[in-house]
Write a structure and sequence with these properties.
With about 240 residues, this protein is of the alpha/beta class. It contains seven helices and eleven strands. It has helices spanning about 60-65, 85-95, 100-105, 165-175, 185-190, 195-205, 225-235, and strands at about 15-20, 25-30, 35-45, 50-55, 70-75, 95-100, 115, 125-130, 140-145, 150-155, 210-215. The protein has a seven-stranded mixed beta sheet. Helix 6 runs antiparallel to helix 7.
């Protein structure tokens, strides 16, 4: 089910954080869940343009900072449940939006979609890798940095939220399966999983990514310690 869109709305967010020489993150709170973060990834493509993965409206100072990194290129909306700020973001920054093929029909009810994530304009820095075993088309963006490192950008298939404080955090952990350590949460498996063995196979294949330096997540903190081992552990939990 698609998330209803809203006008350009800047909520409190952190600073633009470098993850590599051509990869940055910007995090803010999930509007409907206190103490849970959502993260936008910004990738500088080889052509000098910026690719935005997820849409997080930012203040003017952060926007000027982004303008200094490169020209605004395109927006990837990873699923139809991550579209709250998609229409306003694409309009404000004047960037075309792409989404996985399986989510396109739902998102086109909210905003123009330029193309499928599976067919992003080619670039040596980033490519979309579909995930098997899910029905919403969610995939992974593989970022090959100029540093020689490779990063995998996830939406909801892998989270690393830690224990969320407060009473709501208790119930989120209980019913959704969020908690300590990187994981494919129970809510995701039940909501969009259709073949968990196939998804586990994909995680194990991703663990073999040459030069893998981090799992960049949309909810929680990046996994930088043994990311390959984390993927193998997650895969084992799905079998």
């Amino acid at each position: 089910m698609s998330t209803p869109a809203r006008p350009w709305t800047v909520t409190p967010h952190g600073s633009l954080e470098p993850q590599d020489v051509d990869l940055w993150t910007l995090s803010s709170a999930v509007p409907t869940i206190p103490n849970l973060s959502r993260t936008m990834h910004v990738v500088k493509r080889r052509d000098g343009s910026l690719l935005f993965h997820n849409a997080v409206p930012m203040d003017d100072a952060t926007r000027r900072q982004l303008e200094g990194l490169g020209r605004f290129g395109l927006l990837v909306l990873p699923t139809d449940s991550h579209a709250l700020d998609g229409p306003a973001f694409a309009d404000k920054l004047q960037v075309p939006a792409y989404t996985p093929r399986a989510a396109r029909a739902a998102l086109e009810r909210l905003q123009p979609i330029a193309g499928d994530a599976e067919s992003l304009p080619p670039d040596d820095a980033v490519r979309f890798l579909p995930l098997a075993g899910v029905k919403n088309g969610e995939g992974v963006l593989e970022v090959k940095s100029l540093s020689g490192k490779t990063h995998l950008l996830f939406c909801d298939a892998v989270m690393n939220t830690g224990k969320i404080p407060g009473l709501m955090g208790f119930f989120i952990g209980l019913f959704m399966g969020m908690g300590e350590g990187p994981r494919c949460i129970r809510f995701f498996r039940r909501r969009v999983g259709i073949n968990l063995a196939a998804l586990a196979d994909d995680f194990e294949a991703l663990a073999k990514t040459p030069g893998l330096a981090s799992l960049q997540v949309s909810h929680g903190t990046p996994v930088t310690q043994d990311p390959a081992g984390a993927l193998r552990t997650i895969a084992a939990s799905l079998r």
